[in-house]
Specification:
Elements (H helix, E strand, L loop, with lengths): L2 E6 L20 E2 L2 E2 H11 L2 E8 L3 H11 L6 E6 L7 H6 L1 H4 L5 E3 L1
Protein name: Mannose-1-phosphate guanyltransferase beta (Trinotate prediction)
Keywords: Transferase
Pfam families: NTP_transferase
């Protein structure tokens, strides 16, 4: 039984503009690393072995950057893509195939 987490990263990041005009919100840097990378590092330390990223806005850029930064030996990254933003519940419904089973999971 591995611990899983779902991170909702599909929003447009309108409150962080102009920083998000050229990159998705999770790739905005804090202390020289993307915000999302800080979250993934904390999840690894907490024992999470699988992270499902609910992506939408600029998802190709997000996938490319995260795949370069994340050590796949420490954690598995799965992408669940929303074709259009579906609020908070939509990504949960789309990611259900990756989170099914009786075990609890973390949502960020």
């Amino acid at each position: 039984m591995g611990l899983k987490a779902l991170i909702l990263v599909g929003g447009y990041g309108t409150r962080l503009r102009p920083l998000t005009l050229t990159r998705p919100k999770p790739l905005v840097e804090f202390c020289n690393k993307p915000i999302l990378f800080h979250q993934i590092e904390a999840l690894i330390e907490a024992g999470v072995d699988t992270v499902v990223l609910a992506v939408s806005y600029m998802c190709e850029m997000l996938e490319e950057k995260i795949n370069k930064l994340v050590d796949s030996k420490k954690i598995q990254i799965i992408y669940s893509k929303e074709e259009e933003p579906l609020g908070t519940g939509g990504p949960l419904a789309l990611a259900r195939t990756h989170l099914n089973g009786p075990d609890p999971f973390i949502v960020l």
